[in-house]
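User: I'm preparing a small set of examples for a lab meeting where we compare how different chains pack in three dimensions. I only have the primary sequence for this one, and I'd like the structure in token form so I can line it up with the others. Please keep the answer compact; I'll paste it straight into my notes.
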Amino acid sequence: MIRYTLIAIFLAGMPSVAFAQEMSFAELVTERIIPFIDGYIIQLLYALAFIFFLYGMVKFFFTGGEANRQKGKQFVVWGLLGLVVLFMVWGLVKVLLTTLFPRGDWNQNPRAGLLPPGSRCQNPSQCRSGVCTIRGINTSTCE
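Assistant: Understood. Below is the structure token output for the 143-residue chain.
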């Protein structure tokens, strides 16, 4: 699991290497890693916890025998516990990130995900500032 997490973090940072963008650590965390984790991994974990909960409900109500009811009850408890832990931990992570990186573009800014200053662009709508300056033949950068 750790290996896949490291591979995902590495791949999330690859566009910055491919486009040769200079990025600070804060920008890497807030613009690449956190949106990837929040957009894919956390939602997958929420879905898995909810599926555990639903499976436990089905097993508890629709299967016969006391042993199956007990297993269903365990799935319900673990699914709910997983949801509660996910909400608590991810909420704490967002509070810490907002404290450590006060600009918080990853959290509230509707222009998050747009290109930072100095990035290559084709039109102003791609840039965070809304300004795309022509630097030469086939070369434009965000201001």
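A couple of notes for your slides: Residues 24-110 form one domain. The two ends are 40 Å apart (CA to CA).

User: Perfect, thanks.
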